[in-house]
Design a protein that fits this description.
The chain is mainly alpha-helical. It has helices at 11-37, 40-57, 67-84, 86-90, 109-126, 130-141, 146-153, 157-175, 180-186.
């Protein structure tokens, strides 16, 4: 998508433009939101809210950063606001999706072990405090650089590096020495360095 100055976009073009944003970045934003809230239904609702907020705020986009960075910044802030909200703190949401068993007669034992190890790693990442979880998610899963993460979150690069290092330490502790092999094999996400 070309970076376009918002001031020159009319109302009809604005609607086409937001549709294009949703098509191009909708799945990424949904995954990002899920990494914060850990619930698919809530993540879907918040993702819709984020795109509505973007539509209403298009005139605030000044072109000083890429549109993707601007969109992610809105999403991250929206998620943090939700996590601080009364609703999130007081209303209990239950996960209605049934647990799916990964074992069946047709699955080879190694596949089952790998899925279990992957699940343990994802669980360990999701159990991290939000300030560490967002760094791990953005760095490993979204392949963002330290500089990009600093821009999205609104922190300096040294803070991001420190949080990244601390998050890896917490993951090692959370997974335990018994699972050291698991961490090394499953943490090499998308060609990034291992934990």
């Amino acid at each position: 998508m070309d970076e376009i100055a918002i001031e020159v976009i009319g109302i009809e073009d604005k609607e086409k433009w937001i549709d294009e944003l949703m098509t191009q970045f909708g799945q990424e934003i949904l995954q990002l939101v899920f990494s914060y809230v850990k619930n698919r239904e809530i993540a879907e609702d918040l993702t819709q809210d984020i795109f509505v907020k973007c539509y209403k705020s298009l005139d605030t986009y000044k072109g000083q950063s890429k549109i993707r960075t601007w969109l992610w910044r809105i999403a991250i802030n929206h998620c943090k606001d939700y996590l601080k909200s009364w609703y999130n703190r007081k209303v209990m949401i239950t996960d209605t999706e049934p647990n799916q068993s990964t074992s069946s007669n047709d699955i080879v034992e190694q596949s089952v072990i790998q899925k279990d190890e992957d699940r343990m790693l994802v669980s360990a990442v999701m159990d991290l405090p939000i300030k560490y979880r967002e760094i791990i998610y953005l760095y490993y899963f979204e392949e963002r650089s330290i500089k990009e993460i600093a821009s999205m979150i609104g922190e300096n690069e040294n803070t991001i590096k420190t949080r990244h290092r601390r998050a890896k330490e917490l993951l090692r502790k959370g997974m335990g020495n018994h699972h050291g092999r698991t961490i090394k094999r499953t943490a090499k996400i998308n060609g990034k360095d291992s934990l």
